Structures are given as structure tokens and as C-alpha cells.
Amino acid sequence: MTELSDLYTYSSALGDSESDAGTFRVDIEPSGPTFQWSDGMFRLHGYQRGEVVPTLELIFAHKHPDDRERCEEIVQQVSATGGFFCMYHRIVDARGKTRRVVTSGEAVLSADGAVLALEGVTVDLSRTLQRETEQTARDAVARATATRTVIDQARGILMGQLRLGSDDAFQMLVSTSSHRNVKLVVVAAELVQLANSTEARTYLDRAVRAIQLRGRANHAGDRRAG
After folding, report:
1. Of 34, 106, 100, nearest to 64 (Cα)?
2. Which pTM does this prediction carry?
3. Residues ≥6 apart with Cβ < 8 Å to 76
4. Which of 5, 61, 106, 163 has a CA 20 to 30 Å removed from the CA of 87?
């Protein structure tokens, strides 16, 4: 019997580092299914070739308990009717490590349409998901830092232009944001952009004055309400 080879993989999150993956074939026979695994499939399940013989019971024993029933249903359906399949699920390997994998493949049919075998691949997405989660967290921190920086710069502009304290300058930005129904960081970014443009000094003065008037109007409204 020819041993299955592993497959080439690429993950944008991992770059040149390949994902853990393997290929498989399940021959559907009257006496029961027989399995062929590539070396990668053994590794994904925490084994080396020769340590275990792949069986249906072994495969489903390694499925995460919450995913097992649905995976069994899909395999039974494809084995009976043919077609393609794709499952994103979890496996727990022989060392107790949980892997998030995607398994996909198709049924091999005879000339009369009977299912002869299932062939497919399993790719471990655990490292890809971890890298992308870490990058998303880093990006979120970077955006939050950039937002604070822009708001602080805009607050400093108002403090310098209007001789205000930090809290009063911030409240003016908040009032303008509320009045225009745009995010605070947008108001701040516009003000900073004007301040950094040598040709827009007049527009900066007008923008600062508009923010000042809006802040005074809101303050007066608060006093009347009180």
C-alpha cells in the first residue's frame, strides 16, 4: 500500500512557516472502513507512525466532546451519499493538547455512484488563529494609543489658543463631537490637521472659535437646566 504524502500549506499569519497538516484516505469496505494516514495525520493526533492503527473509533475519540456528534453526522452522511465535506472543529491529541483544525475532502465514487472511499486533508489552524489574535490585540492597542495621542494634541491646541485648563479644553472637544454627531477622535484629528498646515492658520482660528462657542453654549445650557 502506497503511503500518503503530506501537503504543502501556506498561512498569511505564519509566513514561511508551514501549518501542521496531513492527508488521509478511508476505504469503505463491507468488512468495515480501512484508513491510510500520512505522517502529518499521526503528528496531529499526537502519535508517530507505527504507534497506533487508525480506526473510526480512534478518530472520533480524539474529537473534542462538543464537536464529536456533528462530525460523526457529516462523515456518515458523506459515506452514504457522497459529496464534499468541510469541518472546522477541535481535536484533543494523545498528549491532551487541543488543536483547532479544518478537515475537508470528498467521496470517491464508483462508476455506478457508490461511495468507495473518502479522501481529504486536515490542517491545524491553532498557530494561525493565535498569531492573528495577537496581531488584532496589538493593532487595537496601537489604535487606542493613536486616538489618545490625537485627542491630547487637540486638547493642547485649545489650551494654548484659548488659555484653558486641560479639563475645559477636553469638554469643548466633547461638546463639538456631540453637536456634530461625529466621533471625538475625528474632531480632534481635524483640529490637529489644521494646526499642522501652514496655509490654514485662518481656518484653525475659525475652528477653535467654533469649538469655543459650542462649549460656551453647552455650558450656559447646563447652568439654565440646573
Report:
1. 100
2. 0.66
3. none
4. 5
